[in-house]
Amino acid sequence: MSVKLEGNILVTGTNRGIGLELVRQLAETTGEQAHIYACCRAPEGPRAEALRDLTTQYPGKITIIKLDMSDEDSISAAVQAVSKQIGAGGLNLLINNAAVTKPGIPGPLSATGKKDMMEVYETNVVGPFLIAKMFLPLLKRAAEMDSPEKDQDDKMSCIRSAIINISTIISSIEKVPETFSKAQMYPYRASKAALNMLTRCQAEDFKSYNILVTAIHPGWVRTEMGGEEAPMTAKESAESLVSLMSSLSNKDGGMLLDWEGVRIPW
Questions:
Q1: How distant, in Å, are the alpha carbons of 63, 84, 199, 226, 266 from that of 168?
Q2: 171 in Cβ contact with 195 (< 8 Å)
């Protein structure tokens, strides 16, 4: 059953594409008590202009946080900044959306080097690992607070306490024969497969705290990474993601789902 997302919500990679649209959708659909922490690497830069416009459009609803997912000190500083603003509250929903791909698409083996592999892994896997680890006390605090689900058998949800890792269908090892010809993308594929394992491990680790951890493929989206041939707009993807997150429960922990909630094989 779908519920309205509420509480303190943090999204990474929000200056463009799906992340920007997620912030817009969350600002539109959540209640007055909800607050969105929108993270990006250069909040004052030209690429964050649209995000800054959203803070004007929704006054008091959005706080922009500087965050570089490849920099542990930056992650630590962002966690401290959010913790200070939340105060005695908890973090209800952490959406790990920020990701990079190197070299440029289609990313064949001949164009891919060790530096590409390491930099993509650092941002796409180590970053989500660290930010979840550092935000765990706030996620646990949110899970311990009163919620509509607290006394029900199905205790986990995105309105209570959850981590959503934005993954991809091309992380699926089983589906490589179907997806490889269009985009080889060795570093991106390998990093997202590792993110799936991180999701599975955290789901097992955090279930005792009633923290939901799920990976979601947002669709093939017309973004800077997805390209112009992609069939979905960022708006359509974000709307689907918000709808899906509103309906997730215990059974979805540790799963890789598409934007419609259909399970994708590992």
A1: 27, 33, 13, 11, 11
A2: yes
Q: How far apart are CA 173 and CA 252, in angstroms?
A: 20
Q: pLDDT (tens digit, 9 = 90+) per residue, 174-229?
A: 999 999 998 999 999 999 999 999 999 999 999 999 999 999 999 988 777 777 77
Per-residue pLDDT at 55 exceeds 60: yes
What are the helix (H) ranges across the chain? Answer: 17-29, 49-57, 72-86, 114-121, 127-144, 176-179, 186-206, 234-245
Name the 3-class secondary structure at 213: strand
Angle in degrees, CA 86, 21, 232, rounded to 5: 145
Dist CA 87 CA 69 (whole Å):
23
Judge whether residue 148 has pLDDT over 60. Answer: no
| pTM for this entry | 0.94
User: Do the strands 212-217 and 256-258 form a parallel or antiparallel pair, or are they unpaired?
Assistant: parallel
